[in-house]
Amino acid sequence: MKxxxxxxxxxxxxxxxxSWVILLKTGFSFAFLDTGRSINLIPFGAMxxxxxxxxxxxxxxxxxLFVPFGIFMCMLKRKNSxxxxxxxxxxxxxxxxxxxxxxxxxxxDITDFIANxxxxxxxIGVFFIFHKLCKENVYTVMNIIALVLVIGLAxxxxxxxxxxx
Length: 165
Fold this sequence. Notes:
Mean pLDDT: 86
Strand order of the largest sheet: 1-4
Number of helices: 5
Radius of gyration: 17 Å
Strand content: 5-15%
Helix content: 55-70%
Distance between the termini: 41 Å
Structural class: mainly alpha
């Protein structure tokens, strides 16, 4: 039971960090955000070009941001079907894109939606690999990894904010 409480707490912290990164772009105010409203419905159509080639850095970054989401879904929705694990990932990613469009706090982009969802699916895959390796200890192992990552992220963003005041 203590393990589940830790998982829920870490998931809430992760969601707060995820929201801060996606919606506030790691800032503290909506005032500093681009107030233009845009939407891109062409997958990989609005990619940044660097040195004449598409820059996939943002796509990879978005996917990596959602890997923990897939892992947390597996930890919180034990013994559920793949569809019930991926649906919260899809709905959360879609919600972020819709919120960005409604409040004009970033570009709504189908590429971001695809990357986020792919990251969540990858997280589900990571969990299943760890489950095969760790068996029933997987929840303890994943909580330890999540705790270290959340603390690491908090320290990293704390340092970024401190040095960029």
